[in-house]
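[step 3/7] fold_predict: job queued, chain A
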Amino acid sequence: MSPPRYSFFSPRQGHWLWFWPRIALVLFIAAVSGLLWYSAREEREAQRIVLINDVLWAEQNLQFQFDQTEERLRGIASADQERALTESDFRGRLNLLMSGNPSVIGAQVYGADGHLRFASGASLGADTAALAATIELAHATGRPTYSTLFWIGHEACVVATVPVGDEIAVALISLPRLVAQQVPWWFATKYRLTLSDADGVVLASKSRVEAGTEGLSYQLAFDPPGHGLLLRVTAYDTGSSVMQKLLIVSVVALALAVLFSWWRLRRHIQGRLAAEAALREEHAFRKAMEDSLSVGMRARDMEGRIVYVNPAFCKMVGYRQEELIGMLPPYPYWDPDALERHKHQNAAVLSGLAPLTGFESRIRHRDGHYVDTMIYTTPLIDAHGRQRGWMSSVLDITERKRSEHFTRQQEEKLQQTARLTSMGEMASTLAHELNQPLMAMSSYASAAKQLANNGEQRELLVGTLDKIADQAHRAAQIVRRIREFVRRRTPHHEPCDLNALIDDAVGLIEADARARGMRITSELDRSLPAIQADPILLEQVLINLIRNGMDACANQPAARRSIEIRSRRDGDMVQVSVADTGQGIGDDVVEHLFEAFYTTKSLGMGLGLSICRSVVENHHGRLWFEPRDGGGTIFHFTLPVTTSETTP
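[step 4/7] structure written:
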């Protein structure tokens, strides 16, 4: 069946038909938006100018109070200089000053000799550092000065000092009272005025608005008294006028109406085109998608009935789509030898308990061969938000599993080779080590023969035979360690005593160490818990690290040839450290140190540290190194205390 043809006009014609209406609509919205923005900007700028003018007025009003206070203080000081100021006159002038400026809470007059002549109200005292510094500055400049900020109770205050000749008149001014008295009510209904220090701490404020949204603000330095005080005025946002809001709402409503009308018209005309295009393209797209996917897709309903499979899934199991649609568990591609496992996995999926990270499952192809798969399952949700079943993505991981198995085999061969290489390097020393108990056994056997001929020395004969048995046991232990270390077997995890593994590794290599003049010392935490590990692989790690340390110390003086081994508990991990006294590891070697087949030894294979890191990481641990204080290198590796995982 051929696809339906358009019955109205082509997409190219429709594109040009809607081009100019779109441009006109965009320009209209841009013009309206620009007009509203410009109007709001002009209004805000006008508000800012008014705010700045009001701030300057408030600052001048406060400044006027300071100027007036200075004049009154100057009059008091002048009268005292002329010796015309009495106690009653001083109090009368002070009452006049306080009535004009209620923020003045105290005053003092100092004579030419610096002694206090008159005082009334709150006082700092003559020995106050702030007052002394202010008086000294006033004498030096001959001008009114103000002290730094200080507190009387909970009130922030400053001292105004006015010199007249050698006489000084001082007034104590409360900043909160100054702001409360000099800021009018109409100002406080429009603005919030604060006086703060350089750190932003509010010293005084006034506002008659309980709560509201703050808008524009403006601040300036408050001089006098200065010393970092800032005067900040913040305007309350009163909102736009009713007419302006109505205008904005009308314009926005008109724009929305135009947009809605245009959208409805466009939707009506393009409805048939969209429907025809969707119907024609949907089938082609789904077909192309199904045919191009390499991942198997399978959909099932809530009961487990298969409702959809793609060609990749059919190819994976060997059954046709029409054969699989409608099937209920058990499915024909399930492994008959693992039906219970398949049923358990299927029950977990249908109950919503399938792991988000997916799970492995082996299925059987129709021709009988097996396919390893990784299955990821998510809920199948319809257009109304209801769950209709489960959607599964099935990945064929057979080749990956085969590759992993091959890689493991190669790693085992490399580990076996490395162990044989280590034993080859130690063969001469081990032969000497075995020769000692054998020679001792021969000597003890000769002595036992002589004692046997003399029947009266039975106790000496028994002791000699015991010594022969001890030497035989020693030789057997050496042979056992060699055989366990070099024999090839499948890696497995079992409970291990890490300290015992360290002792075995040291016992296996100590003969070689003695021959090379090396000292091996151990400092082991005997309270370490057991770990789940492969003892042979860990022993190989220990021997590799010890031998590397011995090689690093080979060129050192005999007194410095030493290897130190430590074990300790570190949280939920155990840590082993192998330290040498060699020359350390050069910077050019660090980045290649753990690479396979990289070595700095003339006869080395370059596999030791690479195998060590692989073994430790397969045990869910970590291997690293660091320089040792005084020279040398320390290799550390950690292993978890308990683990339920096993090496595959």
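[step 5/7] annotate
The chain is about 50% helix and 20% strand.
The chain has a mean pLDDT of 77.
exit 0
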